Amino acid sequence: VQSTLSSVIGPAPAGSAVDGGAEYLSRNPADLDDVVARVRLGGAEALPEAAAQAQRAQREWAQVPAPVRGRVVAGLGRLVEANKESLARLVTREIGKPYGEALGEVQEIIDTCDFFLGEGRRLYGQTVPSEMPDKQLFTFRVPVGVAVVITAGNFPVAVPSWYLVPALLCGNAVVWKPAEYAAGAARALAELAWRAGVPRGVLNLVYADGEATSAGLETALAAGTVQKVGFTGSSAVGARVGELCGRHLQSPCLELGGKNPMVVAPDADLDLAVQGALFSGWGTAGQRCTSLGNLIVHRDVHAEFVGRLDAALRAATLGDPTGDVLYGPLLDRKFAEGFEAVLDTIAEHHTPLGSDHVGRITEAAPRAGFAGDPATGLYYHPVLLDGMRPDDHVFREETFGPVVGVTTYGTLDEAIELGNAPGYGLSAAVYTTDPATAFRFRQGTSAGMVSVNNSTSGAEAHLPFGGNGRSGNGSRQSGIWVLDQFTRWQSLNWDFSGALQKAQMDVGTV
Ligand code: UN1
Known about the structure:
The protein has helices at about 1-10, 45-65, 65-80, 85-95, 100-120, 160-170, 185-195, 210-225, 235-245, 270-280, 300-315, 335-350, 395, 410-420, 435-445, 485, and strands at about 25-30, 30-40, 125-130, 135-145, 145-150, 175, 205, 230, 255, 260-265, 290-300, 320, 370, 385, 405-410, 425-430, 450, 485-495. By secondary structure, it is an alpha/beta fold. A 6-stranded parallel sheet has the order 14-15-11-10-16-17, with helices on both faces. Helix 14 (about 410-420) runs parallel beside helix 15. The longest helix has 22 residues, at about 100-120. It binds 2-aminohexanedioic acid. It comes from Saccharopolyspora cebuensis.
């Protein structure tokens, strides 16, 4: 496995011949000259071809007893554990995630595999009493068939594992289309899964751009070779995936964006709240779906809180992601371009706090506590915006970058309403020492995941993960809840009376 990984993560051979489709170079966002992986993108035929192959392979995989599939998944966990550091280094190198966080991300795969090892021996169905004598009813979980999994690159291995591991455990085959800019990490995880014993036809890796993916998905859905789509990414693309699936009567598992609020109540431990805001607002350069978007601070503690947060932000070290930094570069050039547009909006409408410069970190716009070479990477200053109003664009839309807005509130109902206003509903946090405030906040928020005295990020791998509204269609990943995405209930109605017993009609009375 070590040698497999090093062949994936080693320096790309200069000018190596690539036959067929367009070549894509995945670059290190901290050093754009460093090519991490070189892949060939498939055309619109790639995904349907892989789905057809997966469909053939799935029949045999579904015959493997679930406890044995559980052992394969557990084997993947052990292989990931044995390669934890090299996989984390690859994640850091390919998408610029600080190494400490990358290690945490890899741990999330191990935890997921551990959890689903046990599920291989459960996958419980039920026995259900019948209305009639000598008749027994049962329920079984059956695999859906072929799952197409389309993932973003901000969690290039952990989030895919949330789909891959349960889907495989449940007896499905998978076609995985990872983000191109995380192609190397995707390849490494797939290699480990194949090494662990997942047959190649059961886990298929397809690289394709957005257009080819969308065309390919439509063809595969129409051909009936795909029974489930899992998608993690932006709300806009998620809506398109939902539309495609809907045309073929399918409901996908959608894990989309967030504009996650954090409420700071007047009785909050302000230093704890500052730490939570720093981690979930600017950590991972604000590029988690669970990143903090809007800080909603009680007016009595607003000045004090913003002062402390501003100071913490100025003291934070950022830059080279191989070191101990709050955040490194943005994921990829495409994301840097998107963030530039957010910065244009900010420049037009707001006066940021917390940084003397807004925009790219360059020699000309340096920053204290910067630990990198600004010329080589996609580094951005942290932005803190005070005085946000609910109709501000930056208050309403996910920015996917190191920017957080602050607004104030008077009553808890106002705070809840402000938190829900953007129409997302993924993760929400409240900092308070009053249990009643915590409880009322949980009841009122639209978020699928709520934290009390902890940040909006960092969900544990065995709780239901997912959101509502613009954050998704209500589907949930992780833990036992994801089983409903990758299995369907089948009922069995077994009559051993030897007579035709009619439900609703032959029910005896007492
Ligand atoms: C994502 O950004 O798509 O809860 C997932 C968290 C991580 C997962 C984020 N465990 O922040």
